[in-house]
């Protein structure tokens, strides 16, 4: 049984937090109307990219005696620790 070494908060940070942040941002945008559009549009795009960069790309990482298991909650990848120590990544 692989032992999970990534944070227990990975699922929350990957799936729940981005939607909450986008909802709050969208609510603020709707309150401001057209007077904040010139600044909110580029800031919103930058915000969306940063959410993807910091949250969506998070992986669950587990390790057992023979392999390292990486998961993005849709696919699971196993890397042999023996291969990793030999430099075959």
The residue-averaged pLDDT reads 78
Report Rg. Answer: 19 Å
Number of helices: 3
What best-fitting shape do the alpha-carbon axes yield?
A: elongated
**What is the helix fraction of residues, given as a range?**
55-70%
How many strands appear in the DSSP assignment? 4
**Structurally, how many domains make up the residues?**
1
Largest sheet: 4 strands, antiparallel
Low-confidence stretches: none
Strand order of the largest sheet: 1-2-3-4
SSE pattern = EHHEEEH
**How far from one another are the termini?**
23 Å
Compact description:
The protein is an alpha+beta fold and about 90 residues long. The protein has helices at about 10-30, 35-55, 80-85, and strands spanning about 5, 60-65, 65-70, 75-80.
Write up what this structure looks like.
The protein has 89 residues and is of the alpha+beta class. The protein has one domain (3-86). Helices cover 55% and strands 18% of the residues. It has 3 helices and 4 strands; from the N terminus they run βααβββα. Strands 1-2-3-4 form a 4-stranded antiparallel beta sheet. α1 (10-32) packs antiparallel against α2. The longest helix has 23 residues, at 10-32.
